[in-house]
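User: Can you help me understand a structure? I only have the sequence.
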Amino acid sequence: MTRRVLTAALLLAACGDPRPLQPGSSTGNPDAGDVPDVGPSTHTTTAECAAAHIGGVALDTLTYSNFGQAFFSSWCTRCHGTTVSGPDRHGAPSDHNFDSLAGVQVWAKQIDQMAGMNPTGSVRNSQMPPLNEPAPGDDDRQRLACFIATGLAP
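Assistant: Let's start by predicting it. Here is the structure, written out as tokens:
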């Protein structure tokens, strides 16, 4: 547990986020689907995603194939990729790799808390990518939250 919390703290510090880790009831065991909170959840629901449309596409139809893979490749894997190591990771923990659906599934809760935006726009998490990096727009952040909320379909 201590190692996971420390890893998350280092991730935040490396990315320039001055906020401390927020306390939660997590044990920090990602293999059990339990990771520490690192920010506010978007609290996105499948009903919100079914009702929301961007570009004529309902946000509850997003899959790794039609959205997730391109999103993570565009915005995340330059630091959070299995082929990236050492200083090229810019502080990204070595076990936070988003170049596969399995890697995204492990850290989905924290990804939502760091980069998601709910369909209503009332919660917008923009800690990732870091400020000095290209970042997705609000439409893609909403798609991300719905992709996670609706179960990370392949």
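Now, to help you interpret it: The radius of gyration is 15 Å. Confidence is low (pLDDT under 50) at residues 1-27. Let me know which part you'd like to focus on.
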